[in-house]
Amino acid sequence: GKGGVQVRSHACPELVSNRIFGERSFGVWVYERGGGRFEDNDVVGNAWSGFQVEEQSHPVVLGNRVRDNRSAGIVVYNRGFGTFEWNDICRNGRCGVQIK
To answer: What separation in angstroms does the CA of 31 have from each of 18, 38, 87, 91?
Structure first.
């Protein structure tokens, strides 16, 4: 599957103080109008981006460590939204944050 954590279809979980690492695709994939709050997580060493946000999704991403992912740390595209504050984003393959 795609993503260590998949959030979609108006789901709105709260994930706090987790370690999401070593996935074969995204660390966290929020799509199809997904939401949720992601705070104080380590999203590290995933094959694609740490966070992938798309399709009218709107997560709140606060104080996470997003590091060493092969693609960008955070990707927002295809009508994705969200609030991203106080995250430590470094050493990702492409860039820290990609908005397209």
So the answer is: 20, 14, 20, 25
